[in-house]
Amino acid sequence: MTLRVDVLTTFPEMFAPEAPGALGLSIPARARRAGLVEWHATNIRDYAANKHDKTDDRPFGGGPGMVMMCQPVWDAVQAVEAQDPRPATRILMTPQGRPLSQEIVEGLARMPRLLIIAGHYEGLDERVIEKLTPMELSIGDYVLSGGELAAMVLMDAVIRLLPGALGDEESSTQDSFSMIGPNGERLLDCPHYTRPREWMGLAVPEVLISGDHGKVAQWRLAESLRRTQERRPDLLGPPDGR
Ligand code: SAM
User: In this structure, what CATH number is given to the domain that contains residue 124?
Assistant: First the structure.
């Protein structure tokens, strides 16, 4: 089944499938060509019911910036949802959302259809968020000028998990945050090496050229645990800080 992703944006050109940007090359592009995913960018401006195709207006209460108006966003969502009978998971990219995690990405990769709203300016009028009740997701504690890059980050992370998207079916399970430790924790990946065996006086760890698959697996798990302990001890702690 092809995953359908709709992006609602005022900059649909950024998502043109043939554009050699984040989604037009490499794994997302291959997955699209293989029919694992299709994405459609809809211009919110096309749904503006005012004569200047305005999608934003000045904030009540004054202050800097513009606010995206309810009506164009609401109408765009209704129109896009009606294009396909499959229910869409509504997502709003916002720095105030739940921090995006591999666990959330895994859940979204199992959905038939995603509808992602990318904000701009000061963001959306709160009332349309209240009515749409989207899942609100943040890609980190910093502010981008628009939700488009955040939407692309989410799309890339989801697309690479679609069955068949990666050359080696196993490889995503060995990646950081997908790799599960002995106590069910999400671990960081182990270090990787390739030829030559020695470079600038640094040798590849002996075990990796031993040909002993059991020992290699043991070493990798130990390295993953060590790295996680060193760099992200929070991942090894009890879930939710309990
Ligand atoms: N005034 C908003 C605030 O302080 O929460 C920031 C608005 S930001 C300039 C414009 C748009 O960029 C947002 O509506 C959102 O779609 C997107 N955006 C910015 N930072 C983001 C982040 N960390 N994660 C996800 N989306 C983000």
Answer: 3.40.1280.10
Residue 119 to residues 115, 146, 195, 240, Cα–Cα distance (Å): 13, 6, 45, 29
| Statement: residue 239 has pLDDT above 60 | no
Range of 121's domain?
Answer: 3-159
Longest dimension (CA), the chain: 72
- pTM confidence score: 0.96
| Tokens coding 221 | 């798990």
CA distance 78 to 158: 24
Centroid of ligand 1 to alpha carbon of 50 (angstroms): 25
Catalytic, 175? Answer: yes
Query: Is 4 tagged catalytic?
Result: no
> What would the DSSP string read from start to end of 133-156?
-PEEEESSSS--SBHHHHHHHHHH
Is 60 exceeded by the pLDDT of residue 154?
Answer: yes
